[in-house]
Specification:
Blueprint (H helix, E strand, L loop, with lengths): L7 H6 L10 H9 L2 H14 L4 E7 L6 E6 L15 E2 L4 H14 L9 H4 L8 H6 L31 H5 L18 H14 L3 H13 L19 E4 L10 E4 L8 H4 L2 E2 L1 H12 L13 H7 L4 E5 L13 E4 L4 E5 L2 E10 L2 E8 L4 E7 L5 H14 L6 H20 L20 E5 L3 E8 L2 E6 L6 E6 L4 E4 L9 E8 L2 E9 L14 E4 L2
Antiparallel strand pairs: 1-2, 1-12, 3-6, 4-5, 7-8, 8-9, 9-10, 10-11, 11-12, 13-14, 13-20, 14-15, 15-16, 16-17, 17-18, 18-19, 19-20
Helix pairs in contact: 3-13, 4-8, 4-9, 13-14
Length: 528
């Protein structure tokens, strides 16, 4: 979300083939990058972009992992970021869900090509044919046909929904394209994958990853859900809250807004000490330091095998030497080229925190950068470190990021000029009392509109923080005024026919709103 201007979608879009022979001089260069040199890479980013804190993990062949924190956990408070500060790693959690399924595949308890209904008979999509064809693999690779972020409003911000509610919601979410016809990132099917893991193993997703992955790896700081944290060594959350829109202004402290429901898609909290161990077992194709296989090499290769093309381009440019020629999604990982090598990577975005990790398997190198800001400075730091590790041609990632951040903010200002704080022409066509009532969307639930003191008020009943006055915003249309850091405001349009309200549709007010505020997928009808 925000800043450069980062949201969950932008974090994925901005994330930056075959094996190469590892040359000794290259390894020597990687080893030569000492703590002082790493400090010198990180420090300018913190200064240039008002980043309160980051933590960095670097793994490379034949050397102990480098882990270090920089800056403070929370603005206005003295606690420093260290190697054990916990961050919400967000969508990095998807690779852990894939690994959990790989363990069950190794045990013969399920197969990647098993139909989901074999293990979750109640699973349904809107198309009965897709219901029957959807496999375990399909849950992980963002090719279901669902639109970007479908259903995310059930769990961002946290509300009253629970994970099992996605099984009731899915039949009502309309596809944007054909099944397996293209790429659209989603979280909801990873929640289904978490339910599948629980059904097959008999263990809830968070406890499964804690006992079957964190424990063998010695990831002693990590928990499967933010609600399981039992320490104050936790990174704060920061975002630019405007005006005029989120993504512009000074960094401010914001509160976490993700709940337990999203754990299998984005709930893990971990430190860079944990992330170093995670990168090491990935680069070792599932082998633990003591020589045991956590998952088989066959499953390691399966998880990195590209499945869904996500983007294609002409490749690197003078202003972006890391732009990939081809990028694809595998099982919980993006796979793409980076300066002529295969990069296996992922990003994660939550309210107030964005994280980036990447591995160059042909060099045995991995880097993870966790930040406590809602923008992609962690991506630029990751790339700057990777470049130094492989002795890439010099490139100023600070200047590059500054240019891109300014362009994004200028575009944001232009897109809202004269619009986001000025109501369009038009007014309600009916007395305000006519708009009051209860309205229901089949996948999300109810909103209640009331008239009080000469104004309309709306209550999104499954999302307690979404309560607001409705301010007139054009013909039979209103806007919300949620609390400053509660989430993105919505435009609320009432459909009027023959003097009666027949339904409500919505969209995000800000053109920069994170895709997880998927108001556009809602279609409310009156409840009698």
């Amino acid at each position: 979300m925000s800043g450069f201007t980062i949201d969950r979608r932008t974090a994925l879009a901005l994330s930056l083939g075959g094996a190469a022979t590892v040359a000794f001089p290259r390894l020597a260069l990687a080893a030569a990058l000492d703590e002082a040199a790493i400090d010198a890479i990180v420090a300018p980013f913190l200064t240039a972009f008002e980043t309160p804190g980051v933590a960095v993990a670097i793994v490379r062949p034949g050397m102990p992992a480098f882990t270090k924190g920089y800056g403070v956990r929370t603005l206005g408070k003295p606690g420093a970021v260290d190697a054990h500060t916990r961050f919400g790693i967000a969508s990095h959690s998807k690779a852990f869900t894939a690994a959990a399924l790989a363990l069950l595949v190794d045990e013969g308890k399920l197969g990647w090509e098993d139909p989901v209904v074999k293990h979750l008979p109640e699973f349904r999509m809107s198309d009965p044919a897709v219901t029957q064809m959807m496999t375990v693999r399909d849950l992980l690779v963002h090719r279901s046909g669902l639109p970007l972020g479908a259903g995310d409003l059930m769990f961002f911000p946290a509300g009253l929904h629970v994970a099992a509610d996605v099984l009731n919601a899915l039949p009502h979410l309309k596809p944007a394209r054909g099944f397996r016809a293209g790429y659209d990132y989603d979280n909801i099917l990873y929640i289904v994958a978490g339910l599948l893991i629980e059904r097959v193993s008999g263990t809830p997703w968070d406890k499964f990853v804690e006992t079957r992955i964190f424990a063998p790896l010695g990831m002693t700081d990590a928990v499967g859900s933010r609600l399981s944290l039992k320490t104050d060594n936790v990174a704060g959350r920061h975002a630019r809250l405007g005006p005029p829109v989120r993504g512009i202004g000074k960094q401010e402290v914001v509160q976490p807004d993700e709940g337990k429901m999203v754990d299998a898609a984005g709930g893990i909290n971990a430190s860079v000490s944990d992330m170093a161990k995670w990168l090491q077992v990935q680069l070792a194709q599932g082998k633990l330091p003591d020589g045991r296989q956590l998952w088989s090499t066959a499953q390691a290769k399966e998880m990195w095998k590209p499945q869904t093309i996500t983007s294609a381009s002409d490749g690197p440019t003078d202003t972006n030497p890391a732009r990939p020629v081809l990028a694809a999604y595998a099982l919980g990982w993006f796979v793409q080229d980076y300066r002529g090598m295969r990069l296996v990577q992922h990003s994660g975005g939550l309210s107030g925190q964005v994280t980036y990790s990447g591995m160059l398997p042909s060099r045995g190198i991995g880097v993870s950068v966790l930040s406590n800001v809602e923008e992609s400075v962690s991506a630029a730091i990751r790339n700057a470190i990777l470049d130094r590790l492989i002795d890439a041609p010099a490139f100023d990632w600070v200047a590059s990021y500054r240019t891109r951040q300014k362009a994004a903010q200028d575009e944001a200002l232009a897109s809202v000029e004269g619009g986001i704080d000025k109501a369009p022409a038009g007014a309600p066509s009916l007395p305000l009392a006519s708009y009051a009532g209860r309205y229901r969307d089949p996948w999300y639930g109810d909103v209640v509109v009331r008239q009080k003191a000469g104004k309309l008020w709306i209550d999104f009943t499954p999302t307690p923080v979404f309560k607001s006055v409705l301010e007139p915003w054009g013909p039979d249309t209103f806007r919300t005024r949620f609390a400053k850091d509660a989430g993105e405001d919505a435009i609320v349009r009432f459909q009027v026919k023959d003097g009666r309200i027949t339904g409500i549709t919505m969209e995000a007010l800000s053109p920069l709103a994170d895709f997880s505020y998927d108001y556009q997928h809602l279609a409310f009808v009156p409840v009698s």
